[in-house]
Design brief:
It is a single chain. Helices cover 57% and strands 3% of the residues. By secondary structure, the chain is an all-alpha fold. The protein has 2 domains: 47 residues, 50s Ribosomal Protein L19e, Chain O, domain 1 (Orthogonal Bundle); 58 residues, Non-ribosomal Peptide Synthetase Peptidyl Carrier Protein, Chain A (Orthogonal Bundle), CATH 1.10.1200.60. It has a two-stranded antiparallel ribbon with strand order 1-2.
Length: 147
């Protein structure tokens, strides 16, 4: 039987464990000696390689669709801080935009005496951690008009 199974696996191009032998025809199968005998048994349907059962992707696709809609992202699914999950560039953009908006607003309200360009480029270079750090710098340099 082992030889039959091995030759059948070779002909069916599958592993030996995948070869199915018809339990009602075992006497006929054991008589097979050559590969031609095995080919005949395959044609008769006494030997075959059933299709392997796969895992259906339906549930996975439904899950992915929900994720795209923004579902399934509650507290239990999260690893990492908000900053980490957000990504470095997004955090950088928000920080720079906030600092630039503050500088622009001060310029328009005329609370900034001078140094707009200088400070703008320092913001661009990432010198300030946040708006309060920027404000401290402006006060130290005397760029802020006191009322």
């Amino acid at each position: 039987m082992a030889t039959v199974r091995r030759m059948a696996a070779d002909l069916l191009k599958v592993g030996e464990s995948r070869v199915w032998i018809d339990p009602t025809q075992i006497a006929e199968v054991t008589k097979a000696v050559t590969k031609d005998d095995i080919r005949r048994l395959i044609r008769l349907g006494y030997l075959s390689a059933p299709q392997v059962k796969g895992v259906p992707r339906v549930k996975g696709r439904i899950h992915d669709a929900k994720r795209r809609k923004g579902r399934r992202s509650g507290l239990g699914k999260r690893h990492g801080t908000g900053k980490t999950r957000r990504g470095g560039k997004k955090a950088w953009m928000d920080r720079i935009r906030a600092q630039r908006a503050m500088l622009r607003e001060m310029k328009e309200k005329k609370t900034l005496t001078s140094g707009y360009r200088e400070v703008y480029f320092k913001i661009k270079g990432g010198e300030f951690a946040d708006r309060s750090h920027l404000m401290n710098y402006l006060k130290e340099r005397g760029f802020v008009r006191t009322q």
